[in-house]
Structures
1.
Amino acid sequence: MSENKPVILTCAQPTGGLTIGNYLGAIKNWADMLEGNTCFFGIVDMHAITVDYTPAELRKNSLSCVAQYIACGIEPEKANMFIQSHVTGHAELAWVLSCITPLGELQRMTQFKDKVQVQAKTQGLGSNIEGDDSIENQDPTSRVSINSGLLMYPVLMAADILLYNADAVPVGADQKQHLELCRNLAQRFNQRYSDTFKVPEPFIPKFGQRIMSLQDPTRKMSKSDPNKNATLFLLDDPKLIKKKIMSAVTDSARDIELSESRPGLSNLINIYSAFSDQTPESIVQSFKGKGYGDLKSDLADLVIEKLKPVQERYHNLMKDPAYLEAVLKEGAEAAQKQAFKMLRKVYKKSGFLNRS
Ligand code: AMP
Ligand code: TRP
């Protein structure tokens, strides 16, 4: 690993299949960064246990996730791909950082509040919480049973980043707030204990940064959406891709145009743009005089064509788990080296006695 190359780090949770939101908002951009950078790509299984999960599923998803990354173009020879729990240091650094993190900052995180709402619904408290205008000013945990890991999640995420002295962190727009917290924590630690961490820059792509649900285009497309037609997964077969795109929720207007007040249409154009590398303007131009049927049908063909090689590579990789495990072993060794180096520095500055 070259010392003077910029360090790029990013991570994703191994929760189920990856969506085209993950692909377009994250992984596709990571693949473009392999040259000229030292890359760390983490599969953050410790984050995945902050919500309801099944151990056997998590195990299966972690391996499948690596195969999906490689299939999407993350070449293992050019990147350190690792499982978070294989590297000692993430939880340890998170603990140190938690001691300089005000509780209120964590309670204000949008993703935390969203997840509290979801848990409130599953606990039958939905109607108490929804529609409550003063919720912003309340302790969102007061009426719901929330595990503290969910609250601590952004601190663990900051540790994931700061442990590797990352220069840039490619993420989707939804992670901006977490990145801001990470930068604050790095600065706070540096001020208190002297210069230690690099303050990382978020890298948010221009196109395709926020792919919305096909069924409710005002919400982000998510792996965990209960509406099965809302989310396009990388491993969906062509028939299913076609069905989901053709039934995407739009509006009753006829023409294809760029308009912020038409979120369903904007989302389809955005997906088209990201998969074809064409600008939204040129897509609108090429659908002049045509309607939703044409746009959806062409978009489905495009997505099927672009995902076909990814799916073929994935299925071949899954036939060889020993290869995938070897990739992870090598990735964890490189990550561990860096993690121990940083953790030692942090412990020393924090006043922990040197271990002889
Ligand atoms: P997650 O699925 O939440 O683990 O996210 C993994 C990565 O994909 C993160 O960088 C997210 O910002 C990105 N991501 C997830 N969903 C979307 C989406 N609908 N649009 C764009 N990026 C997304
Ligand atoms: N919170 C991120 C997400 O939900 C995943 C994540 C965890 C991450 N640690 C990270 C992303 C470090 C970038 C860097 O998408």
Note: The radius of gyration is 21 Å.
2.
Amino acid sequence: MNQIDVTSNAKINLTLDVLKKREDGYHELKMIMQTVSLYDIINLRKTDSGIFLKTNLKYLPTDSRNIAYAAAQLFFTAAEISGGVDINIKKTIPVAAGLAGGSSNAAAVLTGLNTLYGKIFSEKELCLLGEKLGSDVPFCIAGGCALSTGRGEILTPLPDMPTTTFLIAKPPVRVSTAAVYGSLRADKLTDGMISAIQKHDQSGVAVRLFNVLETVTAKEHPIIKKIKQDMIELGALGSVMSGSGPTVIGLFKDKKLANDAKNVMLKRRFDTFVVHTLKRKTEI
Ligand code: ATP
């Protein structure tokens, strides 16, 4: 095999809780992440040496500042092989949106190169490599639904929910993550969410969608609150900001309602997608 196309899926947060600030400066998180059907496509082509990256988004870096490039560097170093790769990323996942677009690209490059070069690493080893690139990368390698703790790198798989429809809407605002993490208020909704997921209780999941960062970010960007209200008026059973934002997600029982709501959001020029939850690809 000389080349491979890998899909690189976005994640959404069903919950996000910040428990405390740690002595190492990181925040102790407790959150539930879920892979969804929105994806970038990454073509990886084996070459003799060097890493060359291009993407359809001209403003993204194409050197080691691109996390997909850094993932390839790390793979070759860890595998101790001399080889190269041409990476071509077709981005659809909105950038800096709270959807783990970059982390997912890194995970896809690690997994894809591992396939191209003959499964040098086990999935567990790939996750350990991924952790060096970013706390969300191990989750993106396995996907599905998982409780994530520590900085986000400690994963406990949760049962797959029945396929559930979400509407994703990203308004054109920039969120400063540092400012968001500065002022927090923790809560305990994640445990309730876990039992709703275990019971396959979609309505229970919808009413427990929760993100502690939203309390700060929505104050700074009232558009986030407005999109949440609109999603509920348009039929969502629950709505919340994903990750560090500004993207808002809404859980819809009915795909048609979600598509109707999408058409309303598109008129406002938001990046909008109707997606569904995906099951876990591998064992963590
Ligand atoms: P997370 O949910 O993990 O916090 P995010 O969705 O908020 O991630 P990303 O889309 O990963 O944010 O982008 C964060 C930054 O990373 C951007 O400013 C971007 O310039 C940079 N970046 C580097 N490589 C990539 C990549 N392959 N795709 C997207 N962004 C990248």
Note: The chain has ten helices and eleven strands.
3.
Amino acid sequence: MNRPKVVVTRRMPQEAIELLEKEANVYVWDSEETAIPQTVLLEQVKDAAGILTNVADSIDKEVLDAAPSLKVISTMAVGYDNIDIAEAARRGIAIGHTPGILTEATADLTFALLMASGRRVAEGAAYVKEGKWKSWGPMLLTGQDVYGATIGIIGMGRIGEGIARRAAGFDMNILYHNRSRKPDIEKSLNAEYCSLDSLLERSDFVVLLAPSTPETYRMMGEREFKLMKSSAVFINASRGKNVDEQALYEALQDGEIWAAGLDVFDEEPVSLDNPLLSLSNVTALPHIGSASIKTRTKMAVVAAQNLLAGLAGTELLFEVKGDTV
Ligand code: DGY
């Protein structure tokens, strides 16, 4: 019997590739840092039954049209806004993702970004390496207190809860805004549910974790940044499309908010011309929320398992059903 073909759009941990190779002929775009060119992707998927992808590839109608034998798309991510879900579903293509697995690693990185932005860690590190450090100064590189501050979490899913647990360890007051209330978290972490506007007005750190949907598109814009305290720090670890970057730039530039920590951008990789990168009060990271060795390896293995289940026509470990981040 012919073995099915699988297209892996990026170099992956070997465990995942070996799993796939047991059942399929595997094509791998063997690069860590560059995305598979569209022409190569379109050519390779022609006879593919499965695609193992990631947040950097757009699996849109053009790709689906080029892949008439496709049975399953599996992404090594919790978010799947890079996939045309409606179109894939219409064609009966199963879609897998990796929720849960990356929760703690992403919460760690998000909290690290919060601390780095509040306490100017990246700026301080650059200051030393650039030879600017001439003397200890009473107000040199002073930042915002994290311990005991008020954190506002927008999007209380798994990762939001992970952030709330970490915030509780820093004795922070926890506010959250979410589509639905989370009575367990309110009780166990003393978190307070509030409207988005009230959260923005009261928080010292605003952490955005909402998934990317038509409803969350540019949900943080001029009006929202104006509501925030001038001493507040904004953290985005969700998707760049949730933020109006021009409005964020202006808010930072005009001192309407104090700093921002960004792991995600509207366009990725972010262009060096993006004005946000010119600001010393922006800490920018290259979308590495889940990037611990253990977590990324597990995500790749689970994505491979999802893909094999899809090829076999059996239930995926984690199938895209809607509410995930
Ligand atoms: C996700 O999983 O959606 C992250 O953005 C990448 O790990």
Note: Residues 55, 77-79, 102, 289-290 surround (2R)-2,3-dihydroxypropanoic acid (CB under 6 Å).
